[in-house]
Structure formats: C-alpha cells, structure tokens
Amino acid sequence: MGDDERPTWERFPATRYQGSKLKLQGDLAAIFARLEFDTALDPMCGTGTVAYLLKTLGKGVVAGDGLAFNAAAAQALVANDRTTIGGRIEGLLEGLPDPIAPAGLVETVFDEIFFERDENRFVDQLLPRIHALDRPERELALWCLGQACLAKRPYNLFHRANLSLRRRDVPRTFGNKATWDKPFPAHIRRLAAGADHAVFQGARPCRAVRGDVLETDPGGFDLVYLDPPYVSGRGAGVDYLDFYHFLEGLTEPAGWEARILHRYRHKPLAGRGQSPWADPARIAGAFEAAIDRFSAALLVISYRSDGIPTVEDIARFLSRAGKRVEIVDVGRYTYALSTNRNSREVVLVGR
Predict the structure, then answer these.
(1) Residues pairing with 182 in the sheet
(2) Contact 114, 153 (CB under 8 A)
(3) Would you state the CATH architecture of domain 1-82+204-231+276-333+345-351?
(4) For residue 76, what is the DSSP state?
(5) What's the pLDDT tens digit per position in 118-128?
(6) How far apart are CA 157 and CA 52, in angstroms?
(7) 229-246 burial, b for 16+ CB within 10 Å, e for fewer?
C-alpha cells in the first residue's frame, strides 16, 4: 500500500472505552507532525487509538498495556496488517445461545449483575469459539464481543451491579435503552464490519505487548507517548481494572474464576485498587518513574489541566530528566459522563 493509499486515523472504529483519545486525534496528529521520529512506543495504549494514529503516520509502533483486553485490542487493530473477521462471524454466532446447554461461568457468577440470563448464556457459549481461533482472528473477535458488552452496559462500565437501570421503565437522561436491549449478534456484526474497515498494512512493522509501563523495555524507540489514568484535582482516580474487569475475564477465561473477588457485588478481580496510577498519594511517583525510564526518547504526554500531579509538576519531572518542555493547550474537551466543565486537555512535549 502506498503512502497515498494509507488510511487515516478516522478509520479507527468508535469505542465506548473511558478516556479514549479518538476525538483528539487531529490535535495529536498535528503535534506528531512537528517531531522527527520513525519508531514509537505507546505503553499505556488503552483502546489503541493513538497507536493506530501513529501507524497511519507511517511509524513503527509498539502498543502495550497492563490490561489483557487492551493488549488484545492492540494486536487486533494495530499489530494486525491484513487479517479480518467478518467472514467468520456467522459461523461463530450460529446456534447461540443453546437453551439446553449447561450454565457457564458468566451465567452462574454474574447472574442478575450486568446482563439478562440469555445474554449471559450467549457470552458463555461464544467465548470458547472465540478462543479456539488463531491470532489475530481471536483478538478481533474478542474486541467485537468486548465492545458489544460495553454498548449494552449503562455507563459502559462494569464497576456496579446495575442491571436494574436497563430494566426500569422511566424517562432517561443518559444512555440508550434501544442500544442496551439490542441483541448481542446485531452488535457483533456491526462491530466486525468496523474492525475490518480499520485493518491495513503499515509502512513499518507494528507490535502489541502486554505489560506494566514501569517494567517495559525503554530501548529502541525514538518517541514514547504516555496517556496515564487521570486522578482529578479532588483526588478521584480511575481504576481501569475495576472498571473493565469483565473484559479481562473474557480475554483470559482460563484463570477468571480464581481471580474473582466474590465479596463485592460486581465480582471484580484481584488487584483491584492496587494501581499507583489511581492513587493520589502515589501517582506523582509513578509519573516521575515513567519519565525517568523513557528519558532517552522524545516524550509526549496527554494530560488534563486539573489533575494530580499538576501540569507544572509533570513539566518539572521532564526538566529534571533533561528535557526541554513545551505545553500545548488542546482546548476544553468533555469526556462522556463527566460533569467537569473546567478542565482542559493538554499535551506536554519533552525534547
């Protein structure tokens, strides 16, 4: 594929994952265009939107994340150059759900928590079919199932056992009950088409890895992009493992049941509440450690103007690492479900 044929970032499929930078890709593309680099690391890639942007710019990208579902998404949509999933979908969905098959983990453990019983049964029965696929078809199908699960959830999260919100016959100020109640197969077919449309051959090889940002090999990259979880100025952090534990279970079903913390109603996974990136008392140290770890590369950091640590704190960390710092005000951007109308999106560039 020639440069004139390479897709732009607009081809990346819409996601319901919290904190996605999809709507800021144009601003980030303008910043990347001013920097000279051929290889990039996105070690906290989340949905993979920025890693995908870097791939469309012709860069060799390694996209990583500590969460299994995010690493799988990066394999499907960034590292993958040619494999599509649409031709497999009808075979995966055929005959599901089987009403007389034995109940699986989702139907048993998550009954009355996130989805209706027949939906739980569908997920249980689709999952082994997905995991029988080879990479990257497996990761593409997991992405479709995970995004379908998010679409059918109030708030697009798994931090509360709130199936009752779907069932209430009341006027609504958020969400879309028609989307929540749309059958899983309809969501998955639509999502597969979007994922397939995003797949393209990169100008340079790209990879996906699973791992903690503070343990990632820092060598061999011209640029490192950091988009860490956000702790607001009032000290409210985002624990992505707690928010998306159900997607982690879908991605690693073999060890799912052993990791479930049954004392909580929403059945999260062990490790909940342990991330320094969600702790206002430890996040500054995590920031400084990450900056020091990748100090040999160009550093680009996405952040919010009212976070802990402050933008000024992060600029100091960059200066201590020997960087000349530029702070780009991207403007006011409100994330879904956020009531914060004052925070601004900023990008720090350390050369």
Answers:
(1) none
(2) yes
(3) 3-Layer(aba) Sandwich (3.40)
(4) I
(5) 999 999 999 99
(6) 23
(7) bbbbeeeebbbbbbbbbb
Residues 239, 241, 246, 252: what is their CA dihedral angle, to the nearest 10 degrees?
170
Place of tokens 């016959």: 169
* 273 torsion bin: left (phi>0), alpha (psi -120 to 50), beta (else): left
* Other CB atoms within 10 A of residue 163 CB: 18
Q: How many CA atoms lie within 13 A of 15 on its CB side?
A: 23
| pLDDT tens digits, 270-302 | 999 999 999 999 999 999 999 999 999 999 999
Lowest-confidence segment of 66-80, 188-202, 250-264, 322-336 by average pLDDT: 322-336
Smallest Cα–Cα separation from 29: which of 7, 4, 1, 14? 7
Show the tokens assigned to 331: 């403007």
228 SS3 class: coil
Residue type, 158: F
Nearest to 66 by CA among 282, 348, 290: 290
- Please return the burial class of 274, using the count of CB atoms within 10 Å of its CB with bins 0-12, 13-18 and 19+: exposed
Strands lying side by side in the sheet with 223-226: 207-210, 60-65, 39-42, 223-226, 298-304, 345-350, 325-331
Query: Which pair of tokens denotes residue 270?
Result: 């062990």
| Contact of 32 with 54, CB cutoff 8 Å | yes
Which residue is associated with the tokens 């993958």?
A: 80
Q: How far is it, in rounded angstroms, from Cα 188 to Cα 183?
A: 9
Spatial contact of 317 and 299, defined as CB atoms under 8 Å apart: no
- Residue that the structure tokens 């497999």 belong to: 88
- Residue among 307, 259, 245, 261 at smallest CA distance from 280: 307
CA nearest to 184, candidates 121, 134, 228: 121
Task: Give domain limits for the chain.
Answer: 1-82+204-231+276-333+345-351, 87-198
**How far from each other are the two terminal CA atoms of the chain, in whole angstroms?**
32
Residue 99 to residues 117, 118, 131, Cα–Cα distance (Å): 10, 8, 21
